[in-house]
Amino acid sequence: MTGALNDLRVIELCTEAGAWAGKLLADMGADVIKVEPPTGSITRTYAPFYKDVPNPDRSLFYWHYNTSKRGITLDLTQAAGREAFRKLAATADVVIEDQPVGRMATWGLDYPDLSKDHPELIMTSITPFGRSGPRSSEQATDLTLLAGGGPAWSCGYDDHSLPPVRGGGNQGYQTGCHWAVVTTLVAVMHRDFTGEGQHLDVNMHAAQNVTTEAASYSWLVARDTVQRQTGRHASAIPSQPVQVLAGDGRYVTTGFAPRRPRQIRVLIDWLDEINLKEQFESWPLLEAGANLDHDITMQTIQEGGEEAMIFGAVRDSLVFIAEHVTAYEFFIGTQSRDMQCGIIYTPEDMIEDKHFIERGFPTPVEHPELGETFTYPGAPYRMPASPWQIYRRAPLLGEHTSEVLAEIGLADQESSLRTAGVIA
C-alpha cells in the first residue's frame, strides 16, 4: 500500500451504507480492515453474481464496494468477538461504523468504551439522521434519503406530471460517505497536531440536504422552490432545453451556448467546415455576434434586443449542428472547440471511450482465485501528488482473519475462536 494514506489503519464495521467510505480510504492506501459476521456481510448476497452463481465471494456489488480492503470475521454478539474487536480497535487510527443507533453502546464498543484506553482514536458513525435528535431511531434506505433530503426533487424531466427521478448507484449512501471521509481526514489532521481523537456523527439525511446545489439555499434565502429540468440544473426560473437528438438518434447535451465573439467565430467556421453554413438561416446573426467588441452578458440576454437574438441564434446553431452529425462527432467537435457540451453515454460507452481509457479510468483488477482479470471503474478523482489505485480485489469471506489475529496477539486463540463460532 503506497498511497497517501498508507500510514492509517481503519477498522470498518459497515454494510451498504458506509462501505463506500472504507473503499475511498483503502484505494488511497489506508489499511482498511473490514469486519463481518461469520456468515458474511449482507451485501455478499446482493446480485448480480459472477456467472450468475450466488456465492458470498461472487457478488459484483460486494466486489465494487470493498476493493483494497482486508477482511476478517468476528461474531460481535459473543464476548470473545467483542474483546477481539477491542484489541483490533486499539491498533487503529479510525473506526468507521454504520450500525443502528445504540448497537455499538449495547456491545460496549462505542466511542466512550474504545477511547478510554485509546484517546487518539477517531470514530466515525454514519447513520440516517444522526446519533441524537427526534429522528435518530428512524430507519432509511438510499431511496428515502434521496427523497427526504432533497436531491430527488431536483432530478427528472421538464414534464412535471412525471415523478422525480432517483439517481442510481446508491448516491444517497455515497453522499453520506463522502462527508464521512472528508470529516475523518480533517479529524486525522487535528489529531496529528493535538494528539486528540474524537467522535464524528455523520447524518446522511443532512448530507443530502447540503448537497442539493441551489435547491436548499434557494428556499432558505429567497423562499423559492427549484423545479427539475431535463438534463440541466434545477432552477426556480426555467432555462432553455439543452438535450437534443443527434443525427444518429442518440442524445447530446448542448450546454450553455457560447457568449464570446471568438467562440461564435469558431461556430461559424465549424458550420462552414461541414458545409452547413448556407443551410443555417440565422448565420448573419452569428456574424454579427462574432463582430461584437464585447461578450454577451446574461443581463443583455434578459433585456431582449439584438444581443438576445444573437444568443438565440448561437444556441440554435449548436442544435442544428447536432442534428446533422453523429452524437460522438458533436461531442468531440464541441469539446475540441472549448465548449462545455456532452454526450449521453451508457455505462458501457463510458468505460470504452478512448478518452476515459487514456485517463486510466477502466482499471484491471486481478482475481487470482478465479484465474481472471476484470475491468473496474477507476479513480473518482485525480490528484497527481496523491495517486489512487485499486491495490487488491475485495476480500474473500474471512480471508485475512488469521493474519489480523496474529497482528493483535490472538494467533494462539484462533482455534478456540473458530470452534466457538466467533470467526468463520
Structural overview:
- The protein has helices at residues 19-26, 60-65, 79-89, 103-107, 111-115, 142-149, 171-194, 204-209, 215-222, 261-273, 283-290, 298-303, 306-324, 327-336, 347-352, 354-358, 401-407, 414-419, and strands at residues 9-13, 31-36, 70-73, 94-97, 122-127, 198-203, 227-229, 232-235, 243-245, 251-253, 342-343, 363-367, 372-376.
- The chain folds into two domains: 9-212 and 358-419, Rossmann fold (3-Layer(aba) Sandwich); 241-344, no CATH class.
- The model has no long low-confidence stretch (mean pLDDT 95).
- With 424 residues, the protein is α/β, with parallel strands linked by helices.
- The relative contact order is 0.13.
Report a brief summary of the structure:
The chain is of the alpha/beta class.
